[in-house]
């Protein structure tokens, strides 16, 4: 573990790159990206966008009663070799491995999200993971959240940051946390001190197994499209284009569900998981 001074005066604790673990070429092929000539801001933007548009957020493991693993070899196998997606911790920890192997300085940050932007922060601390990337200034990167920006967010910027997904603003709280506001709705709150990967394991187990967790045992899936996103909550499919809901339907037929899930998220299922009926999408 190495320690480097961050641009914002904080101390960034970084795990060393793991080129022996990360097959960079295979990972880049998985997200349809070229190897960058250098670890700069422009390349980071391309990598983040390609990741969001090719690797879905999905909680299939939760529907099977399985606890996902964030061990580096496990997340890389799941995302790169098996062409699956994963939860926020899996997606962001895997992306951190890729970025570090490409020469970026990356720190894991932990926090919590709002449930659909409507309720106060739910769940325990470290229920969400965000990456802090140090370049000429400090950026926040998130590839594991359906409301995430498609480009890195400048940590020091107090005003609106315009993005293909809307308007974003980072609010620095009096106690040192940072809240992300998307189109006027607060979506997550992140603590700024560095976290180790082990800090998230207990939370992942809780999210996968606790009946008190919102949506526990249910299927959540989302992926970015060129004009918006496609999300699924159990059998309810919702598509947004340019901020407008353009598709909203319940996939009651199993064959239709399996076909849509593969077409939208690139994941072939042998059968539909046992999903509880829901009346509202995401």
TrEMBL record:
Coiled-coil regions listed: none
Any one GO MF annotation of this record: acetyltransferase activity
Signal sequence range: none
Entry keywords, A to Z: Transferase
Top-rank taxon: Bacteria
Gene3D superfamilies reported for this sequence: Arylamine N-acetyltransferase, Cysteine proteinases
Family: Belongs to the arylamine N-acetyltransferase family.
Name of protein: N-hydroxyarylamine O-acetyltransferase
UniProt source species: Streptomyces aidingensis
Lineage per the UniProt record: Bacteria, Bacillati, Actinomycetota, Actinomycetes, Kitasatosporales
């Amino acid at each position: 573990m190495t320690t480097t001074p961050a641009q914002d005066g904080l101390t960034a604790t970084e795990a060393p790159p793991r080129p022996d673990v990360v097959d960079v070429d295979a990972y880049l092929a998985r997200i349809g990206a070229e190897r960058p000539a250098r670890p700069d801001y422009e390349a980071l933007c391309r990598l983040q966008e390609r990741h969001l548009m090719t690797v879905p957020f999905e909680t299939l493991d939760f529907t099977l009663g399985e606890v996902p693993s964030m061990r580096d070899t496990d997340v890389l196998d799941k995302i790169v070799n098996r062409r699956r997606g994963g939860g926020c911790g899996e997606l962001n920890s895997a992306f951190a491995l890729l970025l570090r192997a490409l020469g970026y300085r990356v720190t894991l940050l932990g926090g919590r999200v709002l449930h659909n932007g409507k309720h106060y922060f739910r769940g325990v601390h470290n229920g969400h993971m965000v990456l802090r990337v140090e370049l000429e200034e400090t950026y926040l990167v998130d590839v594991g959240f359906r409301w995430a920006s498609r480009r890195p967010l400048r940590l020091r910027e107090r005003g609106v940051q315009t993005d293909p997904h809307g308007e974003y603003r980072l609010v620095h709280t009096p106690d040192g946390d940072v809240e992300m506001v998307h189109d006027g709705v607060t979506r997550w709150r992140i603590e700024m001190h560095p976290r180790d990967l082990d800090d998230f394991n207990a939370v992942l187990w809780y999210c996968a197994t606790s009946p008190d967790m919102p949506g526990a045992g249910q299927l959540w899936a989302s992926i970015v499209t060129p004009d918006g996103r496609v999300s699924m909550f159990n059998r309810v499919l919702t598509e947004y284009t340019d901020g407008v809901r353009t598709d909203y339907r319940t996939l009651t037929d199993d064959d239709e569900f399996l076909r849509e899930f593969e077409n939208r998220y690139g994941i072939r299922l042998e059968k539909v998981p046992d999903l509880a009926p829901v009346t509202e999408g995401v």
